[in-house]
Amino acid sequence: MRVAVFSDSHGNPAAMASVVYGMASRGELPDALIHLGDGIDGLEAAAEHYSIPFYAVLGNCDFSLRLREKYKRELLIELGGAKLLLVHGLWHGVMPGTTYEARQRALKLGADALLYGHTHMPECAMKDGILVLNPGSISQPRGGSSRSYALLEIENGTIRPRIVPVKQAL
Q: Domain 2-165, CATH 2.40.160.40 — does that match?
């Protein structure tokens, strides 16, 4: 199972749409799309267009009433036999370099991975025995990082993650 993960797109739906369109044109559409907050609606539209399952959590800049009624601050899902906790870091004490509180929540829920947004900086590491992943931002990277998203290959509960830099101007 292939899963594309985005976060912190902040009103730049074209950036995500261009990545998903590129995947479609190569015959590589993911099996699911995830957005970790701050720009949910742009990826939600792409998921609907391509009929791809879509999972998302609210970010601190997802202001619309429609989004606030539809999405929550955290979501535990199972894909490909792996449990993924999705959060937007602000709600779980995440600061650049600090994911302790969010990791403890993931461990408490029995998650295999913590996927978080908010910092705009990519991270892909094993901590406390779980995968900790932030895809970075496809439109407003911080901390000297490049525009990016993440791809997960999940099979029988095993997650193979990678951060994908986006080189073209968006």
A: no
**Burial (0-12, 13-18, 19+ Cβ within 10 Å), 25:** exposed
Q: For residue 61, which of 52, 71, 76 has the smallest C-alpha distance?
A: 71
pLDDT at 170: 44
Domain boundaries, the chain: 2-165
What lies within 8 Å, CB to CB, of 20 at 6+ separation is 4, 29, 33, 43, 46, 50
Mean pLDDT in consecutive groups of 10 residues from the start of the chain, 170 residues: 95 88 94 94 91 96 89 97 95 87 97 96 96 95 92 98 80
The CA distance from 83 to 68, in Å, is 24
The confidence score (pLDDT) of residue 168 equals 57
Q: Decide if 115 contacts 125 (C-beta within 8 A).
A: no
DSSP 91-136: GGT-BTTB-HHHHHHHHHTT-SEEEEESS---EEEEETTEEEEE--
